[in-house]
């Protein structure tokens, strides 16, 4: 039972015993202790709190919706009629003339035809807008907020609290216009995947730093845009063909890109004033070395897991080693992945 629940329960007992009702009597009739006065004030506050924005699809402070997994949210789109958005997608970059010839000769391999359907689903999600009337959409938004902040109760659909996790205003949907619902799906993956949750919270913690702060969710949306472009340019085709997957690859690439940016931001003491240059440099590097950044992420997560296991196995929880924070210069480009076009 939480502290708030304990307080409310205690106050209910006081009210049932008639102690709180005595506050309506003149002070001369009953001498009231400071503790009971304080209890009355807390009880009045509990009774007068009203959930905000209780209109349809906006959520309520009284709700405690269950968290939603990435796979459950993905199933929603896999069963949805997305034909309207499929007609609008641009899954590849249209090239002509000498540029097309160079890309065919020196560029990344073509994506296998068997993967086109899954690729098109990704781009359709990138066009799908946030919908207040869809329960799945609301649960995804609430899950992201809860996993980053640690709260258990739903928050109002609109309000300044969204800025706490790095949206630009009171309505997160406004920031999703460039990446559609995929912008929420990828951050959902980040915070719901057990192996990456700790990293997500480390990055979120840095985003709240006094001088190195940045809007976490807005930065995440920018990275989703980078991932979409990498898929469209064909820079992820080799890895997708190798693994016979699209969604798993683009999610790993998204997390790896965020991790690469995090390394730069933290080690080089970047601030929001540097964001444009950092994003540009990160975009160039990860597009030329997609497999390298994914492998660096895997190495980091493996070492972090090994260190965590070592801490549990060592006496009295003493750490068996420290996390290895790899400097940006330690990440070598992978020549075979360089796009010469």
Short characterization:
It is built from 14 helices and no strands. The protein is 55% helix and 0% strand.
Attribute tags:
globular; mainly alpha; 55% helix; 341 residues; 14 helices; disordered C terminus
Can you walk me through this structure?
The protein has 14 helices and no strands. With 341 residues, the chain is mostly helical. Helix 10 packs across helix 12 (247-267). The N and C termini lie far apart (60 Å). InterPro entries: ELMO_dom (IPR006816), ELMO_domain-containing (IPR050868). It holds the Pfam family ELMO_CED12. It comes from Branchiostoma floridae (Florida lancelet).
Number of helices: 14
- Tell me the total number of β-strands: 0
Encode the helix/strand succession as letters: HHHHHHHHHHHHHH
Instruction: Report helical residue fraction.
Output: 40-55%
- Average predicted local confidence, pLDDT: 79
* Proportion of residues in extended strands: under 5%
- The whole-angstrom Rg is 25 Å
Q: What is the end-to-end distance?
A: 60 Å
Low-confidence stretches: 13-32, 41-61, 318-341
> Structural class of the secondary elements?
mainly alpha
Shape: globular
Largest sheet: none
Give the helix/strand layout.
Elements: H1 3-16, H2 34-48, H3 70-78, H4 83-86, H5 97-106, H6 116-125, H7 135-149, H8 182-192, H9 194-207, H10 216-233, H11 237-243, H12 247-267, H13 275-288, H14 290-313
Helix pairs in contact: 1-2, 7-8, 8-10, 9-12, 10-12, 12-13, 12-14, 13-14
